[in-house]
Structures are given as C-alpha cells and as structure tokens.
Amino acid sequence: MSGRMAWFKKEKTPKQPQAERRFTVPEGLWVKCPDCKEIVYKKEVLRNTNVCTKCDYHFRIGSRERLDQLFDMGRYQEFATEVAPLDPLQFVDSKSYEKRLVDYQKRTGLKDAVITCTGTIGGHPVSMAVMEYGFMGGSMGSVVGEKVTRAAEQALKDQRALIVIACSGGARMQEGALSLMQMAKISSALAQLDVAGLPFISVLTDPTTGGVTASFAMLGDLNIAEPKALIGFAGPRVIEQTIRQKLPAGFQRSEFLVEHGMLDYIVERNKMRDKLISSLRFLMPN
Amino acid sequence: MFEEDSFEEPILDLERRIEALSDTGDDPATRNQRQRLEQELREIRERIMSDLTPWQKTLLARHAKRPYTLDYIEHMIEDFVEIHGDRKFADDPAIVAGFGDFRGRPVLVLGHQKGRDTKEKIHRNFGMPRPEGYRKAMRAMNMAEKFRRPIITFIDTPGAYPGIGAEERGQAEAIAFNLREMAKLTVPVVATVTGEGGSGGALAIGVGNRVNMLEHSVYSVISPEGCAAILWRDPSKNREAAKAMRLTAQQLVGLDIVDAVIKEVSGGAHVDAAHQAEILGDVVDEQLRTLESLNGEELTAQRHERFRQLGKFTDGALSA
Ligand SMILES: [Zn+2]
User: Fold this and answer.
1) A–B: how many Cβ contacts below 8 A?
2) Which class does domain B58-318 fall in?
3) Does position B9 have pLDDT exceeding 50, yes or no?
4) pTM for this predicted structure
C-alpha cells in the first residue's frame, strides 16, 4: 500500500459496505497513529508488522504482506491464478461493474479479491486463501467463492490444513444472487473437509462482515482474530437504523466476540505465525 | 406513490365494481354485466401479471395477503405437529418447524413465518429470524436426518434480523453452521422461495437438492432498497436496483440458481392459497419421488455438486 503511486490517490474510491475507516500506513517518514495520535517512525511501524509501536494499533495491510509474514522463509506457491471475474449480470450503477473490475485490477495487480496458495508454516503443509480488502472492499463474488472452494479442495487433496484470512465487507452486490450462492458453495466444501477430519483455521481481520462472516469465516475449527477487528453479520449502521439507538462502545469488535463465545482467541499480528504453528501442531493429523 | 408501484390498481378496481354489483340484485342484466366484468378481471390479471417489472415482483413477493409458511402447511400437510425451540436459548416464532404427512409420507417441514396483523407481525418479527430460529431449524433437520425423513422448506424473509442480541448470540455463526450442516444431510431436501428470499437469512434454510421459486417471488443478496442505498447512494433508486440485481425467478433459472419456477394462480398466489399450495405440492411431490430413489451418499453428492458449480468466472481459456 505504501508503494502506491501518487496519481492513484486522486481517483475516487467507489464505496463498498464498510463500517469504520481503518488506516493503512501512509506516505512519508513519520506516521501519526490514528488511535493513540502519537507520531511514530514509519520504518519502525513497518518492521513491527504494520502495528503501532506505541499502542498496538493494527494498520490494515494488503494480502501480499500477510503472506510474507506467515509462511516458512516467506515462500509460497500461488494457484488458481487464472481465475478471473466476469460481469454476468452486466451490472451498471454509477459505473459499470466491468469498468470497476478493470480499475481495481490495475490498482491492486490482482484479478479479484483473494490470493490462494500452498506452502508450509512451521513445517506443516497448508492451503491458504487471503482476502484483499483493497479490491472492492474484499467483497465476495464468484471468483472469491471459487478460489476459496479450491483452497479447501486443495487441502482435501494433499491432506493440508486450510487457513483462510478473511477481510471483507461481505457479498459483492454486482453479482447478485450468484455472490450469495458462494456462501453455500464454500460451506459445502468445508463440510467435506470437516468430515475428512482436516483442520480449518479461520483468521478474521478488520473488517469481516456480512456473507463472509455468515459462511466460512465462522466455520473454523478455530476462529481467531486480530485485536479490535470489526466482526459481525449486519453492519453497525444497519443495526443502528433498525433498532434506532446507538451501539455500545466496542460492539462487534474482536474482544466483544471473545466475550460472547464466538472466537477462540485474539492474536496480535506479530505473534500470528507462532500461534498458528502451535495450533497446527494440535490440529494436524499425524 | 410511483406509477410502477400501483400496478394492482386496475385489478382492485374491477374487484370493487364486481363486489358493488353483487349488492344490487340478481336480475339477468346484472348477472350478465357481472359475468362480463369477471371475464375482464381474469384477462386483466393475466395481462398485468405476465408483464411485471422486477420491482413489481418484489412488491408482489411482499404482498400483505401472500400465503405464508403456515398457509402452505395447512393446505399441503396432514396431521401437522409443530415443534419449538433451539434447546439452547429460546423459541423463535419467525421460523416454524414441525412434521406431518405430505402425500402419504412423513416429512419435516419448516419455513420463515411472517404475521398478518400488527400484533402477529411483531410476534413473528416480520419474518426476520434471530440465531435461535436458525438453530431450531437445524435441530429439526438433524432430527429428520436421524429418522430418515425428507425435508421441505419454505423461504420467505426480508433477511436475518440485524439487532444487538442477534449479534451477541452469533447470528453469523448460526447461518454459517446451517450452510455447512445442510450440506452434509443424507436425506432429500427441497427448498422453495415462496415470497422474499432475503440474502443469507434465506439461504440458511435453502441448501436443497432442489431449489424452487414461485413465479412472482424474488431471491437476492440484498434488498433493492439496501442495494440502492449503497451503490446508488439513494434508497429511492430501488426500481433500478431491483432491475440490475436480476432477482426474479425467471432470471435466476438462467443462472442455474433455481431448478424450477412454480406457476402462480392467476393474479398471484394470494388470490387462492389452497390452489397455489396444490400447484406447489405437485412439483415438490414429483421432486421428492426422484430424490427418494437416491441413497444418502448420492443425495449429499448431488446437493454438493449443485452448489459447487454455481458462479460465473473465467479460468484462463476455460469459462464457467
Ligand atoms: Zn498508536
């Protein structure tokens, strides 16, 4: 994200369903932390896995950065790289979906909002899908559905653990009910994995809402999250409009979900890899 | 009111005129006139209902007199016994479940339930389930699994309820769990969207070996109003959103999301619930007969394949 060219910033970002703004590390030598408001040295933040060195605020990071942090020696092999979106409904709102896709593909260098790959973590074979919030708010359409399903099938085929790192505003409206059906499609693949006794770890990052939460993200043998991530079914604004009252502080944050029994644990980004290794040691079949 | 919204007016107007005539006596001239108006009513119903916009179908799917799950159960199921509760927290009246006889076989039936009058609407929470509703549904389906009974579901909800308690008790987890566990069932599952198929809250009881839609029902990832508010930033663009999302039964058959479009009685399902239940029953009965010839493993595999192939994308040279 920090390497993004300046002229891209002038482009208006089409709005996707999202709750509250979380910041990526901006340009410049120094960074003002949006949470504790301290001015911190950017290089230190980057070295600290994009986490504020003063208050542990987790800046939003891209899918590639995540992959680099998790695999043994930072090495992984991508698959299903040719799977790319279509515009099956020929959907047009203020802009055509087709045009939107091309813009996001240029901006992110990705074909859609997820990367799938295999590799090892602490020596354990893993099939992984990582969502990219920078691609249309990480929304789930046919490509995300297909690639996450293939990641599950890859795990099944090679006896790997499945890890999916969610980061998404929910379903992609521009693909209508096709995007809705991805929830059932992925869950059906997870049913096979479940029956086969292979582990699935769901990692929820900020934000994970809507149809992504209400399908694979809540189906892990372990559901784990980064601190203070927004996690929910309905977005906070929708709830406020429905019940006509303000939501309590901390509502739908990781800590709230742990309190209500929905998550196994919260893990800070720089401890994620170690915690995954400890968990895989228990979960992986001998 | 927008002109597009008042499509039923000519029908209602004719119905009022026929009603008025029946109060004026029974002489041959009046009878004659009534017959003429009734013929006109049949024709105008056919004409209007065969040419509805996606938004108009949305309105019809939400029609205040639309048959709900309990109406279908009343007309389709003999000896119905309702069961309650998720055995964890509460009973959710927005989903009804129970068992009974459907054309000679014991079945499990369940579906969303909306209310008719204000009091019942509130009791049923406008057909918007909380997590307990989905958990009750899954508990009931697991019972059908245990006792090897087919499952019939009716889908008709604006969506899962977005509230504080629902979030606290795991609305997302409840829906997700159903999606995965329904995929494992080894008994036949036939799901039918009878009214509004509102997003994940609809799909959570919709992972069927067959998925049907009534002719004027809708199924979508978000309501047209919600879509308009987010993508158009203007909730009044609901007509445009309804059109863009392709949420009608006829459009969804083309995307393989729906197996069968079930014909509605002339003028819409609400005109004659009993007849509508019979038409629906015929289709469901035939589908069950086909599915009953498969064994458990085949049923699970067929359901998996059905959903596995949903989606439109390109894979390099190959398109799916
Ligand atoms: Zn800070």
Assistant:
1) 201
2) alpha beta
3) yes
4) 0.94
